[in-house]
C-alpha cells in the first residue's frame, strides 16, 4: 500500500519493474529457494527484489541535463561538483543544454536524444523534469536524479504533479531519485579509512551532515542516499541494497515519512537476515512533527505506534537525536560479535563509576558482580578499601603506571564480561592520557568491546583527538547517555539476530478453510452485529460463549434453558455500539420471568432509541478472569495491524496496548504481552491465579490470520472484552464488533 500522494504498484507491475531494472531476487535463506513470485494470502510479494544500484553509485557514463558553466548560476556549481565526482568514480560526463556548444570545455549536446552513448545516470537540473523523463525513456537510461522542488511537499497541486512524474517513471523503466533531492549522493568520501562503513539514507540532506562529518573522526562512510520525496526510489530500496554490500557494517537513516510500509518491512527483513544493523531517526512522534515532516517531503508519516512496532519487529534500532544516530551507527558498524553481555564500568573515581552504573542499570544493561576470585586479582593492584565488584574503582593512582594495563586486561579476561566502559569525565594528565593509551592498547588485543566516554567539552586534547579517535577498536563517546544508548543497541541487536526468524518465511501462502467460512459472513461497507461478529470469530476457532439469537420472549426463555442459567441478555444490531451505556445489556438473570422481562425491556429501549435489532442474544455467563482487548485496524502505510491490551473500560482509560504488523509469529505475540504496563494482572496479583497466557497468545495469532486473509475486506475488528481465564481454562470472547470494507 502506497501513500496517498503516490500511485499504486500492483504485483504484476512490480514484477515487470524487477525485470526491467535488473533488480536481484532475494537469495536463498534458511534452506528455501529464492522466488520473487512467492505471494502471501493477500497476493502480496513475500520477498522483495533488490534494486541493482551499482550503476547509480558507480556509473560508467553520466548525462547532466541543464549543465552550465555561467558564473553565478546555481546549475554551474552543481555541474562543477558532478564533474569532480565523475572523475573520482571514473565516469564519462556528457553535458546537455539546448543553446551551449560546450560546458567547462566538454562538448555539449542540445538534448538527451543527441547523447553519444547510452548513459547509466542522468542528472536532471531543469525545473520541470517530466518532459526530460519522457525523453530519457527513449534512451534506455538506467537511473535519473531530479533536484526540482514544488511537488508533494507543497500540497495537493504538487502531489498531483508528483503523481504524473511517478507514472512517467514507471512507464519509462528507469529508476528515479527524487524529486526534491540534492547532491549528497555525489559527495567526496574519504578513501583512506579502513573497516566496515556506515551507509547513510536521509530524506533531508542537512540532517545527514553529522553522520557524514564523522569521517573526520575516523569513521568510514561508504554511501549517502538523499531520497527526497521518493516518487520512485525510496528508503526501503536503499536499505535492501546497502544490506547486500560487503563493506557496509551499519545503515543509518533519517526518515520523515515512509512511502510504503510493507516495502520497508521487507527491506528491514533483508537486513535482519544478514545481521546488518539499521539505525533510524523517525520523526513524526507528535502531531507537530508529523505535520512538519509532511510539508517537507510530502509523505505520510504513519501512526507512530505502528511505525515503532514495525521497526521493533525487524530489529530496526530507533533513536531520537542525530547525535544518537551517529554514535549508535558508528558503534554497530565497527563492533565485533559479543562473547558475553556483561558490562563492567571502570573509572578513576568512585563517584563517576557509581553515577554511570546507575544510569546503565536503569537503561537495562547487565552489570554482573565480579567473582570473589576476580576481585582478589584486581586487589593486587587496587587498594583493598576500594570497591572492585562492578563498578571498578581504581582510586586514580594505578592508572599512571604499569598497574593500569594489568587492571584492564584482568577485567577483559573475565568470561562474563563482554563490554568494558571507562568514563573519563575530564582530562587530568598524566592519568587520563595514560589511561586512554592503555585502553587503546588493550582493545587491540581483545575481541571484546571497549568504550570510552570523554567528558571534556573542549575536545582538542591529544588523548582524545589522537589516541582515542585514532583507534578503530575503541568506541569513543562524548556523553554518558549516548554511550549507554549505543551499547544497549549493540547488545539488543546481537540478541535479536541470534534468534531472528523471518516472519515472511512462515507467513501463510494459501487461505485456510476458515477464510471461506468468514467470507460468507462479510457485508461490504457494513458493521456486523455482535452475533455476526462472533460467528466470524467462530470461523477462525476463537471461543465465544454459548448463546442463541432470539426474536421473542418465549424463544428467549427456551434459549436460557438450553444455554444454562444464569444468563446474560444483550441487544444485537448491525449498527449497535456501546450497548451498556444505552442499557441494552442485562447480566445475571436466573429465572424465566427475569428473562421475559429483560427481553421486553431490551426491545423497548431499542425502539425508544431508534435502534434497529436483528434480535436479542441469550448468552452463557462466563466466570471472571482478566479482561483483555484484541483487535484489528487498518493503517494507511502498513495495512492491517493487530492490537492487544487491557480490555473492558480500561482500554479507554489507560490505553495500555501493544501493536504488531502481520505477519508475525508466536514470539512476537508473547513480546506484545511483555510490553503492557498491566502485564502483572495476567501473571496473577494478590492471590489471583495465573492467566491462560497460551490461550491469549493463540487468540492473537488467530486474529492475525484473520487480518491477513481478510485484508481488503475487514476494516476493523474489536474483541472487547476477551475474558482470559485461569491457566488451562482458555479465553472467551464475550463481545465483538467488526466493520467490513
UniProtKB/TrEMBL annotation:
GO terms for molecular function: ligase activity. The keyword Transmembrane does not apply. It comes from the Bacteria. Residues 534-572 form the ATP-grasp domain. SMART domains: CoA_binding. Keywords: ATP-binding, Ligase, Nucleotide-binding. SUPFAM superfamilies: Glutathione synthetase ATP-binding domain-like, NAD(P)-binding Rossmann-fold domains, Succinyl-CoA synthetase domains. The keyword Nucleotide-binding applies. InterPro entries: ATP-grasp, ATP_grasp_subdomain_1, CoA-bd, NAD(P)-bd_dom_sf, Succ_CoA_lig_flav_dom, Succinyl-CoA_synth-like. PANTHER family: BLL6376 PROTEIN (PTHR42793:SF4), COA BINDING DOMAIN CONTAINING PROTEIN (PTHR42793). This is Acetate--CoA ligase family protein.
